[in-house]
Amino acid sequence: MSKPKKIKDNPSFVKVTNQIKGIEALYKISPLLKVFSPKISKAFESFPEIKEQSKIFEIPDNFNERFSELGWVAYESMSLEVMKEAIAKYDTEGVKVAEQFLTDSYDADCLKYGILRFQGNQEFRRRIRLIELAKEDYLAKRYHACIPLLLSLLDGIVNDISKHVGFFADSADMTVWDSMAAHETGLQVVASLFTKSRSKTNEEALTIPYRHGILHGRELAFDNKLVAAKVWAALFATKDWADARISEKNSEPEEEKSWRKVLKSFSDTQRQKKLIENWTPRSSENITYLPFVGKAEELPLNTPERAVAEFIENWITRRYGLLSESLVYFVDKPKGKKAGLAKKDFGNHTPLSYKLISIEDRAAAITLVTVELKFEDNNQRISKIVNVSTNYLDSENNVRVRTEDNGQWKIMQNSFTSILYAFHLQ
Predict the structure, then answer these.
(1) Distance of alpha carbon 132 from alpha carbon 136, whole angstroms
(2) What digits encode the pLDDT tens for the residues 277-317?
(3) Percent of all residues in the chain with a pLDDT value above 70, rounded to a whole number
(4) Measured distance CA(187)–CA(114) in Å, rounded
(5) Strand 380-393 relative to strand 366-377: parallel, antiparallel, unpaired?
(6) Is it true that the peptide bond before 291 is cis, omega within 30 degrees of 0?
(7) Which residue has the higher pLDDT, 39 or 108?
(8) Sign of torsion, CA 238 240 244 245?
(9) Are strands 408-411 and 353-363 parallel, antiparallel or unpaired?
(10) Which of 51, 207, 231, 300 is the most exposed place for a label (fewest CB within 10 A)?
(11) How far is residue 239's CA from residue 141's CA, in Å, rounded to a whole number?
(12) Which residues, 6+ apart, have CB-to-CB distance to 280 below 8 Å?
């Protein structure tokens, strides 16, 4: 059975379209239904708005038709407003203006949002240090440095996730059932485009990130913002490809989805993006209780500093079961197993006291809490300064914005590596 030609032909989109058509038929006779049941008629009041929302299913196809052969494709976490504006500029002002608009959309906020989402996938998360360096180079206009790094990371991520080949391999399959980014008109097109061979040394400015030419020194003018932005776009789309692979494994293709669920899923990323854009880090002037020495219960509820304080107090009192529940586990384990592992790791050195020194809100879901811990080792009092990394996650370890209610602050265990595995503290 052949794959759908358009994203709007994806099974989940088709089901929504068919359901809306069925509801529309009833909506047309809803005035008559009101005679028999006012409640039934009232249920149709929101239908015009829902029908209008369903037009968003046309946008990804319109975007790919114009931009995929240029190295841009629609993906789930891409802003719908950016897609619509790019399409409008392409149609009215031409391809160069449209591409410049897309390039400029990959700014500091866009990168912050995209990298924040990487926390939810192990293969992306383990590369965040290098991705952050690429971001610094990109924002500083050091495109010669960030482009080769991003290309290599893109290849490695796909290789590790697929357990087969990298992004640039001829046999790479970047398609996933019922996905936008991984539709046959999406990442697969970009992968083929980026992988085109470059047999001659070229000194003219590139507009496409030709991987072979760049990494093998045949492209001598690849270092521009347009090329760099396209690699960032491919990397973000690859995160959505990775998410789609996980969803595909966890659900049957025949699974029924209501139009409400599909619309909610499709728009959730846009909603979260707006929350991130509206979020601002706290200033030190507004955190008047630092440095803090006291009990965790005295700190504001649902804050990263309180989570860290509660964690350390459980460490001090050797309540390893409670301590383990505060740690990030990306592989699900029984509670007893987690408590045993926590005791093994945190039982070697137990702090006597702690002091919260500073707080740095690095992103909408990430805060660094600097803590001073006091220990006794070899009959000596030892002070250790630790930068505790905290993430705001939901019950499935998906990154959430701290202003949302369905999250909890979790502690990254590697924040304490220098203490946990030291034979003696110094």
Answers:
(1) 6
(2) 788 888 877 889 999 999 999 999 999 999 999 999 999 99
(3) 81
(4) 17
(5) antiparallel
(6) yes
(7) 108
(8) positive
(9) unpaired
(10) 300
(11) 24
(12) none
Cα 336 to Cα 118, 319, 320, 328, 340: the distances in Å are: 29, 12, 10, 15, 6
Name residue, tokens 């619509």: 84
Token representation of residue 237: 């789309």
Q: What is the pLDDT of residues 152-180, one digit of tens each?
A: 999 999 999 988 788 988 778 888 877 88
- Please give the model's pTM, rounded to 2 decimal places: 0.63
Q: List the structure tokens of 229.
A: 């932005």
Q: ∠ CA 24-29-30 to the nearest 5 degrees? A: 85
* Residues pairing with 382 in the sheet: 375
Question: How high does pLDDT run on average in the chain?
Answer: 83
Q: Which amino acid is at 34?
A: K
- Rounded to 5 degrees, what angle do the CA atoms 358, 361, 364 make? 160
Tokens of 360: 């740095």
Give CA–CA dist 198/216, Å, rounded: 9
Q: Count Cβ neighbours within 10 Å for each residue of 38-56 and write b for 16 or more, e otherwise.
A: eeebeebeeeeebeebbeb
DSSP assignment of 211-243 = HHHHHTT-BSS--SHHHHHHHHHHHHHHHHHHH
Place of tokens 């965790």: 296
* Amino acid of residue 32: L
Pick from 63, 50, 64: nearest CA to 262: 50
* SS3 labels along 122-151: HHHHCCHHHHHHHHHHHHCCCHHHHHHHHH
- Which tokens in the block code for residue 256? 């029924």
Burial (0-12, 13-18, 19+ Cβ within 10 Å), 346: buried
Q: How many CB atoms lie within 10 A of CB 193?
A: 19
**367-396 burial: b if 16+ Cβ within 10 Å, else e:** bbbbbbbebeeeeeebebebebbbbbbeee
pLDDT tens digit sequence for 214-229: 999 999 999 999 999 9
Looking at this protein, which amino acid is placed at residue 317? T
